[in-house]
Amino acid sequence: MAPAAPQTPTPETTPLGHQLFTRIRLATPSDIPHIHKLIHQMAVFERLTHLFSATESSLSATLFSPTVQPFHSFTILLLEASPTLFPVSTFDSNPFFKPLTEVVNLRLPFEDPERDTFKSMDDVTVVGYVMFFPNYSTFLGKPGFYVENLYVRECYRRMGFGKILFSAVAKEAVKMKYGRVDWVVLDWNVNALRFYEDMGAEIVEEYKFFRLTGKALQASGHAH
């Protein structure tokens, strides 16, 4: 997960003449091309492109199958930005999630060099995303959320957007009476570690993260 390097524009609590309207909404199958590009950008940032093999087809088949119900299975929230108010849309009547909107006030005018690449509709650009799904704590006797990815595009970092995305997950966990939210951060990503610690998160040092994949997974799956 990757909040990172400082950028010149920063948000303020009082209007300074450069407003950016933001919206968090549930992703839909039509967002797959943008989601795929965001995941690839995150793999580049985390120096893990050698592990990246997802395709638009594989994402579509697994994230948006008929059995996937938001918040009870794989869920992706997209963060979008616009220089103008968001128009009324079908997202506003989504039965699973009402979009969250917020106005960010910037010190300086802001330009997105990839605006056309990540354009989702007129004057609306995809900024980042968070992908999560339920897990369970036997010690708490309650479900929780595991955040697999949280990513904000480089030109939008240090503007409060990572916190906006993460808060949306936490808000849903509270609403559903879940017990906790878990995630993993690469040990070299000092900015991300500081970001989450500033939010009140604690680092759980006594656990080691294990993974079974590839040939080892296949071998274990066929073991007697």
TrEMBL record:
InterPro entries with a match to the protein in the record: Acyl_CoA_acyltransferase, Diverse_Substrate_AcTransf, GNAT_dom
The keyword Acyltransferase is annotated on this UniProt entry: yes
UniProt keyword list: Acyltransferase, Transferase
Annotated N-acetyltransferase domain residues: 76-218
PROSITE patterns noted in UniProt: GNAT
One GO MF term: N-acetyltransferase activity
Protein name: N-acetyltransferase domain-containing protein
Gene3D superfamilies: 3.40.630.30
Taxonomic lineage of the native organism: Eukaryota, Viridiplantae, Streptophyta, Embryophyta, Tracheophyta
Signal peptide (residue range): none
Source species of the chain: Vigna angularis var. angularis
